[in-house]
# Entry
Amino acid sequence: MTLINLKNSNIQAREHRLGSIVSYEGSASDLAQKSRTGSLQDRPRSFTQVSSCSSSCAICLLSLIQDAAVVNHAPLGCAADFSMFNLTNRFGQVKRGLTSANAHLVSSNLTESDAVFGGSAKLEQALRDAHARFNPKALFVTASCASAITGEDIDAVADRLETELGIPIAVVHCEGFRSKVWTTGFDVAYHAILRKIVKPPRTKHPELVNVITFWGEDVFTELFGKLGLIPNLIVPFSNIEQLSHLSESAATVQMCSTLGTYLAAGLESLYGVPEVKAPPPYGMAGADAWLRALGRTVGKETEVEALIVSEREAIAPALAELRKELKGLTGYVAAGSVHGHSTAAILAELGMKVVGSCFWHHDPKFDNQDAAADSLQHLVENYGDIPVSICNKQTYEVVNQLRRLKPDVFIVRHPGMAVWGGKLGIPTFLVEDEHFGLGYRGLLRYGRKIADAVNNPAFFQHLAQHTRVPYTDWWLRQGSFTFLGAEE
Amino acid sequence: MSTTIEQPRQFCTLGGQQSVLAIERAIPIVHGGPGCSAKLFGGMAFFNGFQGSGYAGGNAIVGTNSCEQDIVFGGEDRLRQVIDGALKVMDGDLFVVLTGCTADLVGDDTATVVNEYRERGIPIVHASTGGFKGYNYLGHELVVRAIIDQYLEPAPEKIPPLVNVWSVLPYQDTFWAGNLRAIRQLIEGLGLQANILFGHDSGGVAAWKKVPAAAFNLVLSPWSGVAIAQRLEERFGTPYLHHPILPIGAVETTRFLRAVGEFAHLPQATVDRYVEKQEAHFYHYLDRAADFFMEMCWDLPARFINISDSFYSLGISRFLVNELGLLPGHQFVTDAPPEEYRPILSQQFASLAPKVSAEVTFSHDGGEIARIIKSGTYSDPPLIIGTSWDRDLAKQIGGYHLSIALPITDRLVLDRSYVGYEGGLRLIEDIYGAVLARYF
# Structure
């Protein structure tokens, strides 16, 4: 496989590498089928609301590495998400039993004169400051639209300082305009880690499994313990030494290929760490398939089968009760691609009907090129077809759909989207912990959360009575996808 | 001095989008990269007291999401597409196009595009706010200036009691909504009519259209907003009063009200009547707190350190020194005031009271600020009044901490105000709440 080129600090954006799209209207089965046949085309919207960019995704992941520091080479506005990731860092530190402290982030603060004369000196200063202030084990330089358009050679500065400061300095090409798919930012961040941090294996740890996550609760230590395995949660809340040994693990698993595709495939391609290629472990069918694939990869098939039986038995009575309670309820899911598929699977598993969904973007394939990891096809095969839109976070489309569909519950995973369902009077919640609904026991937690949201809608009713959405009556009467263009 | 910024407390000119959102039923259109607006909404609104999306903010903000193609071939046609859509989809009274770094660096002629629409009678203006141009204090002025120059018309006649208020920045000041409301109450207490222009119940475009008719402009701010008043004087001949101290507590608020009364030629008795009533209320509660101040004073902060913009650092310093009799430590001003204002500000800190002065550093680099604070010696626990970034620092030096400035992620802020007589009482409550919280 020629996926990873460690010589180059840059990689192809998802739309070029994976054929990813940000606009679509149709069904899960159609989207899955077009993805497999390679006939998927984007339909650019003429009217758009603001999206997000790669820079946020990259800064997020890298600033959560506990002993590294991130230098954002950009005007100060690009640092406006620092306080968000600082809060993410502090929440996560508390959740993972670490001492909460500020994240290690600085901006080089590019200004008008730097746009004219170049900002290399400021980058150098920022790198030196970050090194002196945080004593980091590695530095990551995240590029910006401004640094790219003014044509600076960031790599040259980084290479020079790397020699002088004696720690790895990795350039992360997460310029916002470079990709219309913001998750490209994860990929470039992982590329930086693979290039500069991960070392070839010095030994092998057959019990250790890399688990690519965000900031969710550690539900794996207990689960994997039953299989005699030890989870290695990465990248958030890890450290540079830990990351340098990623090549020594027995396997890599993911909760969400949208997040981890590049790193998992990279570790397999570069160092032969097998990626567990499976649908995500949400809904019983997903959990079964994911665990079995893990068992096959690390030679724990028997243990996995026993675990599946005991986990299924443990939740059976409570699950039956929940299904009775939730039966007939409808839901709408808004989430990042694969985690959206997972959430839809959870709802279906709980006996609910998914009446609509929007996923921010769609990857027709992952870097592993393996159909076994096709979470959308898995959803269709195990839980049936659902209506799907790929919305790139366009709330005008989502509000239009929600008003029409009137779901009993609106479930979101991404900041800034939930309120638009709440304002329509729909019981809405955001699941910030990606492991909340994971596996068998997660189903119970998730189901309880839905039941609670639906059982007391008082807040949402008041909100709907006293707020207005910012859309014209004309728009609310149009079809939700009026502004989708022709396939390009 | 280093150019690096750690722990940012202000952002870029495009942050002016939040000023647009503070105008009722105004719709921002961001012509920039895909992530700028979401980052700024997060930094200025959500992760700053958890101010929400409101009517048309957050993910509802219209934007071109400029990509590689728009950089290479220019993004003007793409902007036209998006404005066309916005006019159909978004229910608003005023559209404000703001540019990001991409559009300004590749040289899109945004002015011409927007003018095409304005010539068709559409209420739309544009501000060139590419982030590399400056901070959002400037961004706020650029947005206001765009509305003044491209939207407002001279008024046929003045409305004698009407005063336009230019003060704290929407969203950037976490307490802006409450503060502007408090300023309105104070001005209306004198019998004038306050045009506060931003925030709930501020009147939207109808209020903005009255801007040229005001009797005068009030700049209640150390420096930000002076340029706005100067432009309004130039364009509409409206005089302005510049009162540089954000009034907190009785001493400063009374001083402020007397200045306004004098400028507006109000009868002395009108001002006296209102001031006396407000002071009586304020000092009633200060009296009630006197037992606490005196009996618990073994634990009152020995020195206070402000780390905030010039509004708060100066306003709070004056309040704590002149009202509560506290003493200042080193003060930090984080809004990068233009050079010409710095000597004036330094002088104001140097002469807080006859025998009380404070050293001031102009910096918005948290690393530099922390270094200076850590190099000090503190015989008793100092009080840091700053941002959520500064909590760790306060712990490290054994001090107390209260977040009152961006970013605030350790408090939820709704309509609380620190301005005026009531605002002074709130600040006292919050400071001593933070002091007592250490023991629980």
